[in-house]
Amino acid sequence: MSDEAYTNDFDDVSDPNPQGDTELAIEGALRPQSLSEFVGQRKVRGQLQLLLDAAHMQGRAPDHILLSGPPGLGKTTLAMIVAHESGRALRLSSGPAIQHAGDLAALLSSLTPGEVLFIDEVHRMARSAEEMLYLAMEDFRIDIMVGKGAGATSVALELSPFTLVGATTRSGLLPNPLRDRFGFTAHLEFYDPSELERVVERSASMLGIEIPGEGRAEIARRSRGTPRIANRLLRRVRDYMLVHDTGGTPEAVHAALELYDVDAIGLDRLDRAVLDALIHRFRGGPVGLNTLAVTVGEEPETIESVVEPYLVRIGFMGRTPRGRIATALAYDHLGVVSPDHAAKLHDL
Ligand code: ADP
Fold first, then answer.
1. Whose CA is nearest to atom 5 of ligand 1?
2. Residue 40: CB within 6 Å of ligand 1?
3. Tens digits of residue pLDDT in 220-240
């Protein structure tokens, strides 16, 4: 396993448009440091607060935590907050970096007592590591195989107590025995426009720029329910304001975001490509996920974990046992007459 997986920086691994070190540093600087700064997700915040307070009063490490939900909704941020609020060190890793049980053994045995271990994309860990993790989470112990063949023996290794914070965009892919070992699981929901406005307001003030209410609302509307996108769009608006020497008016916001192919309700190029394929190539569906993914030149996992949740949430796409379908709202958005509507017109 590479040393990179152990770094404690704010690397934004799931940002599909990384803009270089400075942008990542800004993204990191905008992260809330405490639950009180964390916007929205009221229920999850309350539950986490209780979990942390109880652990603090009993002087023990908080229970293991599983956070699920689409990218950019605050899973990594919450893991950092758990470490920060409980005054514990944080170690960052990710499922794809743990491809052998040995990778996990090295990681776990190097944790300091009480450390918070964050594993992003925990569903992508190797199977053998997953099994090792069961025992580690439950008994803070791992069994290591020494030797090969008939002479192989297993040696138990005691670990320091730790808190695992696992994050996943695909909680359905987690095996039940792993899911059951988390003392607390939470699903993060997309944010409302009013919550995203607060994210934009907070980030704008941290970046030292002023965006009036209407401009903030326009950014929030186009952020796909996702704080990471809100912050990214805000940075593009900031660039536009700087280059064109203008204030953060809705017109400036509109002009800046048009440049980046973000439409009026926040759909980006890939969202529109998926809807376009569904409607034009597959006559509204149903169509299978893999076929849809191949048609737009993307991985099925990206369609399933990034594109689809939001399109389903805003009622543009439906999931049926036979595949994905486009709804009447999607036809309207693309300015295409839906087959149902066409049939009604025909009957008139
Ligand atoms: P995930 O791990 O779910 O992909 P992150 O925790 O990396 O998402 O969040 C992405 C960015 O969005 C962070 O840099 C943070 O600044 C911002 N962010 C996420 N959730 C919130 C929130 N609830 N309030 C304010 N900012 C947030």
1. 74
2. yes
3. 999 999 999 999 999 999 999
